[in-house]
Design a protein that fits this description.
Low-confidence stretches: none
Mean pLDDT: 90
Largest sheet: 5 strands, parallel
Strand content: 15-25%
CATH architecture: 3-Layer(aba) Sandwich
CATH superfamily: Response regulator
């Protein structure tokens, strides 16, 4: 599995990378602009991301804008909704408008409110079918 972790907070990026490292190859980006660049590059190199963990509040380009741009890049490359990257929004914002915008305007797969712990993220990855559920 290939993962792009997008967060302007060093601690959050590092923590997610530490949790996901045993399950995936992880790249990081510190803002939406870097995320769009990394996503486009991964597709060009035929190494697409399976998962993107995206913060919403970031400098340069925020998570909402970056996610819409990433979904547009997928459409340009003929990637169907069924095969597009899963996107978990990871944010401190616990707001119904942000949730609505992330899902319905941006095409997010799921939404986790920080602080995120290991159990929370691994449970979500199992639910999305990205890692096996050993209990099942």
């Amino acid at each position: 599995m290939r993962v792009l972790i997008v967060d302007d907070d060093f601690y959050c990026r590092s923590y997610l990378q530490e949790i996901l490292h045993p399950h995936a190859f992880c790249d990081v980006a510190v803002n939406g602009d870097e995320a769009i660049y990394a996503f486009r590059r991964a597709l060009t190199e035929a190494k697409p991301y399976d998962l993107i963990c995206m913060d919403l509040v970031m400098p340069e380009i925020d998570g909402h804008h970056a996610l819409r741009e990433i979904r547009e890049i997928e459409r340009e490359h003929g990637i169907s909704e069924e095969t597009q990257a899963k996107v978990i929004i990871t944010t401190v914002l616990d707001d119904s408008e942000d949730t609505h915008n992330a899902f319905f305007l941006g095409g997010a797969t799921s939404f986790l409110v920080k602080p995120i712990d290991e159990t929370m993220i691994l449970t979500e990855l199992k639910r999305l079918g990205l890692i096996p559920d050993k209990a099942g």
